Amino acid sequence: MAFGVLTTTASSAAAQGRSPSWESSAPRSTDAVAPSPSKPPSPEEPRPLLPLLLRVPRSADTLRVDSTFGFGELGDKPVRSSLLLLSGSHRITESFALNARWGVHDYVEMGGAERAATTNPTVGGLLAWRLGRFFRVATAASVALPIGSGSGSSASTTLRNANRSAGFARSAYDGALFAVNDLGVPVGADLAFAYRRFSAQAEVNVIPSVRVQGARTSPDPSRLNSTSGLLLGYAFLPELELATELRYQRFLSTPVAVEKDPTQRDSLTVAAGLRTQLVTGSTRIRPGLSYSRGIAGAIAANHYQMVGFDIPVAF
Predict the structure, then answer these.
(1) How far apart are CA 45 and CA 26, in angstroms?
(2) How far is it, in rounded angstroms, from Cα 111 to Cα 140?
(3) What would the pLDDT profile of 265-303 be if each residue is shown by its tens digit?
(4) Cβ pair 121, 147 in contact under 8 A
(5) Quick check: pTM over 0.90?
(6) Which of 42, 102, 176, 222 is most buried, judged by most C-beta within 10 A?
(7) Spatial CA neighbour of 156 closest among 102, 115, 191, 195
């Protein structure tokens, strides 16, 4: 406050051709205009909680590491999958960002085969903007390049199972990463709401894909998949958030695998997790820990449970 008075006095003195009061003993002018009261700062825009697996509806410079451990059954064999996904985004404008993702995963049949593999890489863009004070809207599109492990017609059964298990471990939500014979083009949209400490988000995606190789191991020339999700969250403290997600995957076309086994058409997964926050300068690190399990459909039929640990970093 003292600094504000001195600054106002200096400005008034300069306008009248005098030195500031701390440089001159001359009496202050009696007709000086009193400073107007400062406007209170506008309240900070509410920020939606960071999702566990859904899309972040914001253009930003970020890096993220996702680790997922999934346990279940394939063909009555106990199996486990470990995944490490690396993703990043670069903000081009306040509303638009480019992004990319790629990962590796390891598959183990208990007492049997083991195989490491890589995912398809994806590249794309996101357009996000505010809708009033409490809402955010985002649209996104990407391309999954079919160069992951197991592409072509010579992939072993173990490698095909590795990709299937990894897809289940990701709640069947990232199918384009593991459809290694298909060129996939996921497109989607999000609506997020934040009010005080509460957040909600809804998401829907459509994933058309076309087979470009591996006709012997991938019998479908094209497929149309979809995913959708709902997030509810609450920030108990700036450093402690609780979030729950409901994730749903459904084939809109009828692949050969669904013709043979209708239980493979869709999957419903529920997840819950905690997230904290570490701030160093302009860098914000927000690690999170979550647990997920299938409650209906293919993931539930194969008894999959998943533990996830992610480290998002925003610059």
Answers:
(1) 47
(2) 42
(3) 999 999 999 999 999 999 999 999 999 999 999 999 999
(4) yes
(5) no
(6) 176
(7) 115
Q: What percent of the chain has pLDDT over 90?
A: 82
pLDDT of 44: 59
φ/ψ (deg, to 5) at 77: -105, 130
Write out the E strands in 151-218: 182-184, 187-195, 198-211
Task: Look at residues 165, 179, 171 and name the one whose alpha carbon lies nearest to residue 217.
Answer: 179
pLDDT of residue 14: 40
| Residue type present at position 184 | G
Q: Amino acid identity of 132?
A: G
Q: Any idea how long the chain is?
A: 315
Assigned token pair, 120: 């398809």
List, for residues 189-244, the tens digit of each pLDDT value: 999 999 999 999 999 999 999 999 999 999 999 999 999 999 999 999 989 999 99
169 by Cβ neighbours in 10 Å (0-12 / 13-18 / 19+) ranks as buried
Amino acid at residue number 128: A
Q: Which residues have C-beta within 8 Å of that of residue 241, sequence separation ≥ 6?
A: 49, 50, 233, 234, 235, 274, 275, 276, 277
Q: Which amino acid is at 162?
A: A
Say which CATH superfamily domain 62-314 falls into: monomeric porin ompg (2.40.160.40)
- Cite the DSSP H helix spans in 174-302: 175-178, 256-260, 297-301
CA dihedral 8, 10, 16, 19 (to 10 degrees): 160
* Cα atoms in the 13 Å half-sphere on the side-chain side of 129: 5
Q: pLDDT for 99-117, tens place per residue?
A: 999 999 999 999 889 999 9
Residue 27 has what DSSP assignment?
P
Confidence of residue 90 (pLDDT cuts 50, 70, 90): very high
Please classify residue 294 by burial: count the beta carbons closer than 10 Å to its beta carbon, then call 0-12 exposed, 13-18 middle and 19+ buried.
Answer: buried
Give, rounded to a whole angstrom, the gap between the first and last alpha carbons of the chain: 33
Q: What is the pLDDT of residues 30-41, one digit of tens each?
A: 444 444 444 444
Report the alpha-carbon distance of residue 110 to residue 105 in Å, rounded: 16
